[in-house]
Structures are given as C-alpha cells and as structure tokens.
Amino acid sequence: MHAKETLFADLMQGRAQQFQVPLYQRTYSWTEKQLGQLWSDVVEQARWLGSAGERGSTHFLGSVVLAPSPQNDVTFPRWLVVDGQQRLTTLSLALAAIRDHVAQTRPDQAQRIDEQYLINKWSSGNDRLRLLPTQADRSQFAAHVHGTLGERDTGSGIATAYTFFRGKVVEAAEPTAPHDVFRIEQAITSRLSLVLVTAERGDNVHRIFESLNNTGLKLSQADLLRNYLFMRLPTRGEQVYETHWLPLQRSLSNDELEQLMWLHLVLDGDDRVRRQDLYAAQQRRFEDDGAGEAEIEEYIRELHRRSVHFRRLLHPEEEPDPAVRAALRRLAAWQAAVTHPALMLLLHRREREEVDSADVVRALAYIESFLVRRMICRIPTNNLNRIFQSVPGQLPLDVPVTEGLHRLLSSENRFWPDDADLREKIRTAPFYQYGRWQQRKLVLQRLEESYGHPEPVDFAAAQLTIEHVMPQTPDDAWLRALAEEAGPEETAEELHARYQHTLGNLTLTAVNAELSNHPFERKQDLLRCSHLEMNRRIAATERWGVREILARADDLADHAIALWPAPLRGMGRAERSRDWQLAHQVLAALPHGMWTSYGDLAAFLGSGAQAVGNHLANTPAVVNAYRVLTSEGRISDGFRWSTPQEAGSEDVRARLTADGVRFTATGAADPAQRLTAEDLAALIAGTDDDRADGEDTAQGATAGITPGQETRAERFFRQLAADDSSETVEAVRALFAHWEALGGWIGHGSGHVITSAYLMLGESGGPGRGIWPMTLYPGGGRGGTAEVVFQYLAAREPFTDRALRAQLLSRLNALDGVDLPEGKLELRPNIRLSLLEKERNRQLLTETLTWFRDRWESRISS
Description:
5 domains, 38 helices, globular
C-alpha cells in the first residue's frame, strides 16, 4: 500500500478516470449534522483565502483508500473507493450546487466546474461520471450531476445534501459576506487535504475496509491537551496537579474546561482557532515557543486564574458587583456564549485595574444592545462567532477598552442597526418569529422595566409568557374590524398575517389562557388588572387594530432607543441588502413540491407583497423565485424570468410541475403544498425545540402542581373540550392511554396561550431529554391539532434518516382526511384531532405510533 497527502482537485482533475463505490459499501448517509460541520470547515478555509498575505494550514478531511478496479484499463483508469465515498460524494454534490448557482450568470465557470471535477466530457453512459456511486444512489447522483431536474427524488440522502449546499451557497453569495462562491469552490478543491492510500491489485479490500471502520470512543480536546500537558511535566507534575489543576477540574465540567482552554487561545490572539482544533493549536504553540516545564506550569496557573472569570459568565451570581452581575445575568439569559471572548477580556482588564466596574457595565450595555438590535432587525447570527472571537485582537490600542469596544462593534460590516433601522423593524418585522423564545421574552421584559413602574414585577418569580393582543387565530369579529382598515390591494387575512407577530402587537402576561382569542373588550378587562405598565397602556386604548399596533410600536421604539445604545456614526454601517438576503435564503430552502405566496413571503420578511414582487422581478438568478405565486396559487400576471436563459427554457407552469407542484382542475397550485409565513420561518430555524412558548415540559398529570391547583393534564383537556366534541376528547384520551401502554409518557407544557401535550419516549425533564413524534394542541377556537414534528426528528436518531421520516409521513397520509405533501418533511405540519372520531383513523394512528416506538427502541438497543 502507498500513502500520500493530496487535495480533492489533484485527485479528481486531469485525465478521464472514474472512482467506483463497491456494492458492499453502504448508501450515502450523511445528515445535516455532518454536512453542517463540513460547511463550517469549508467557510473557515475560504476566509483564509480572503485574508491578504495569510495562507494558514489546510484542513484535514480524512482518508480516501483506493484499489484498482477489475474493470480498469490503460486508457480509462477505474478505481474502487474502499473508504471515503461519503466524503467524495459530498464534495461532488457541493460543487454541483456551486455550478448550478453560477450557471445563469457565469455559464463558462459552470462548464469549467463540470468538466474539471464532475464529468468525463468525452465519455457516455455511466463512464461520463467521475464518481460512480453504489447502485442504490447512482440514478439520483447522476440526476444531480447532469442537471436532469425531473428525475431527482427529494426523498434521497443525495437530494438532501444537494439542497443543503444549494441553500448554503445562496447564503455565502451575499455581497457583504467576507467570501464568495468561487472562494468556496477553491476551498473545497484546494484547502481540504486528504490522505490518499492506494492498495495494490490482490490486496484484500474487504479486510482493509473493516479495519478502517473499526473505530472506538474518541477522546475530547480537553482530554488530549491535559494528557499532553502532564506528559511535559516530568518533575513538577504532581505539585502542579494538586495546586492548580485539581481545583480547576473541580470547578468546571470537562466541556466547560475545554471552552476555557479555547478562550485562552482566543484571548492570546489566536482568533481563528476552532474548538475542535484546540489540542493541535495549543500543542503547536508550545512546540514553536520551545516551552519547558516552567512555561507549561505558567499556562496551567493562568487557566486556573481565568477560570474565576469564566465561572462568573456561567454563574453570574458569583460576580460581586451588583450592576455587573445584573448585566451578566441578562447575557446569560440571552444564551450569548458567543460573547465570551469579549466578556473575559473585560473582566481581565478590570482585574488589572485598567477599567472599573462602571466601565464594565457600560461595555456590557454595548454588547447587549448589539445583540438585541440585531435580533429585532433580523440580522442573521452566522457571523457572531467571528465578530466576538476577533475582539481581543482588533480592539483599538489608543483608547480605553470600553470606548474601543464601542468603536469596534460600530465598524463597517458589524451590522449594528442604528436608530432608524431599529424603529422601522419594530414597526414592520415579525418579531415573534425570530430569535429564541427567551430572547423575545427578555426584550419585552426590558421594555417593561424601562417604564419605571413604582411597583416593579419580580420577573424571576412571575409566570409570564408572550401574548398576542390581536390573536393568532382571529374570529370573524376581529377579521371584520381589520377589513375596515384594509386597502384595495390587501385582504383582512393578509393584514392580519402582516402585523400579528410585530412587536407592537405583543406583550407579557400570566393569564394567556384566559385572554386567548377573545374580543378586545374582554382582553381590556384582564389587562387593566395587570401589574405591568405595558398592559395598562394597552387596556387604556379604545380599540385594537393596525393603527393602534403601529402607534404602540412607535412608543416601544422610543423606549428601545433609549434603553439600548446606538452604534457610533461615521464607522460604516450595514447595507440594506440583508433583508433580501433573508428572502433569498428561505426561497433556496423551499422543499421540493412546495410553493409560497407574495403575501406569505412579505409577512415573513416584515415587508409588503408589492415590494416582494418588485424585488423578485428585478433581481436576477434568485433561486426558486418562480415558486412565489399569488395567494390563490396562480402565476402572477406580471411575472417574468429574470434572465434570457431562463426565459427561453420553459414556461413557468412546466417548471413548477417538474418541481413537484400539483395543479387543481381550476389551474391553481395545490393549496396543501403552500407554505405560510410561519412555515417559512420554521424552514430556516434550527432543529432545537424552540417553540414560541418556550415553557418546560413536565411528566405526569400532577407534576409541578400544588394541592388544589388544576393539573396540566386537566388544563389540557379543559381547553380541548372548549371547542372540540366529546367524541374527539375521548379519542385523545384513548390515544394517550395507548401511548402509555407502549412505554411512553405524556409531557404537558405550561404557561402559554394554549397548553400542549407531548407523546414522549425516553427520559423525563423536557423534550430535549427524549424523543416525541407529535405535539397535541387544543384549538383556541379552531379545533385541536396534532403537530407532527418532522423538523425536530431530523436531528434525533434514528429519524435523522430521511427515509424513516418519509415512512412516518406515508403512514399518516393513510388516515382519511390527511394529505401531507412530501415537502412538509422539513416542517411541522398539523393534523386535525377531530379526524380521530373515525375508528379507522384511530386504529391507523395507534399502529403508526407503535411503529414509531419500535423504530426508536431498535436504534437504542443496537
């Protein structure tokens, strides 16, 4: 066997050749977890390429083991891929996504990528593919490489990976981003190193494959670095361990210790290192500096000292100054771990007496404002790590640290929204659909505090959640009132979708269930008795509609501007293309067979339908722009292709049909395949359980309930019975009993408008501790629903396998009255609980839940 280091470009370019995946290899199986990690590595390498004068080290991707194929010949070499097919397939799909992204604007570059990496130009049939996957994946891989759209199957792992990269390339192509798609291509082909191992003819490739894949439990970066440190302390090791390491290890968990080690490198100026490269980076520094025992001991002593500061970030109650403690608590509640490099720097400078606590409080206010204003203005968080990681190395040296931090965060391409941007987004952006639930709650809490009520609320003890004043499910009375304000081009429903989630329509309350979707007059009576100043002001309003929502938004904007400091002027500001970049990102993520409307996309963006239409009509090469239709599911009369290449290819309906969009007898797109504003928000949300309520989920009917108090289960069934029939209620009770007989348990949410019930498997303590196929909600006036949580299952074994989720969807579609399109596999579609009144539906659902339990248990046992 021969081994050498190589690059993807060196492996794939050159003469016509083919890499064949043997039949004994498994099918393509990378999920978004592995794809996301690879993309992070690629983007990191692209940044190196964009840094003038800096090369850095390439990223080691892994090994590729090849053996001569029995079909090999002199004029057309063929190789068996013994190991590494997942890597080669993924990189090829990423390049196919880049090729397709630039095909309309740079056809010459698209052809170059195709011929250099993906195809053998002068060959035909299977020989045309440079990489020939195993037979199970071959047709799908070929369809994506050859661009035969109609033959693509969205249910395959190949299609999932291609769609993932298609969306990421759109995101990376943003004009203000620090890298472009061709740097991404270069990073993939020339910055990811591989160890190429070539076997001789006659070697036992099966044995090689088994040996390579016989892996054990990997040590963490902290474990590796600890072992290295004490290996370098032959005479001082025992004393250093007792004096510094043991107290350090007792004060932090292994994961926290690893974070601290990484922060130590960042604070020392290594702002490009990633946590997964911590061990190699620190080892390299020691060896480059010729570190002996004294230097190793000093490093451990410094870790111990900095651990005191780090614990204050994790446990703000350990901070002695009350004002600093309060600011740290807010950042901890925000879950702002990305800010830790800046926070550690501030506490370090205070210890050295370069700043006092008042300076630290002012600096923390800038950091909080930076996070809050960006969140309200819907600026993506994907560059926050880089921004705060670079703080120690980029702070101006000629001014105090607090002023320097203000300058740095205000500088160009930091995207700290100014007062005008903040005011506009408070008026128009769907605040309720962006950021994490605790962040939304914290914003409203801080705004309430800014009113200076003489009897402030104890927010730590209060059971407050977010309430929509104009309800999410308006009845006819609400819609009639909205119709009076609607213009000629906008319906009451569209007006409701546009303003329901804006900040002006939201407040905090402990009586959400009582408020629900009642008329405003009823809500007034309840809000008038509230201890919150915000609620008393709402109650003092005669009516509640768009005018009142906008007026309250302006008032809240005044408070927000006073509460969260603005960036400095003259330091450069973000371009306004960020909003449209969010539109491009969500359109690129549209699942196969799904469409959305101009109004839905506008409500998601906090824009107007006409502005959305104008932007799509006048912006070339927006991915999936043709899948934005009118609210009736029809192609807009004003639609036109943005490039001549598209205009000459096919008509819009044919393209939609090829994308899996069905049309009814009237010529309208199937409404079952339509994605609402809420669906669009879910498309680009994370897979963590970040529902709007954000409440805990308790096991059992009486968990967390004091004697004489209504249990969560009782509350659930009371709300369910309020607008569902007794037959539906009894069917749900029977469903719960069947689930518990299967070994599951029912978790109940608390403290929000409509309570909920989770069909849980695994440990108690909330959804994050186990797995659940669906969440049941009472209807709040519109009938109860079961939310099928495909989006969350995608991150939970064994349902990271898309084929398993597709089986679940198919089983649910067997129920009478259920027709969930395949595009909903990326989302959280609803099923009406009233369908369970049919005995056949009850039987099919219980069989489906049994199947779900069996799939999960088979994974656990294996």
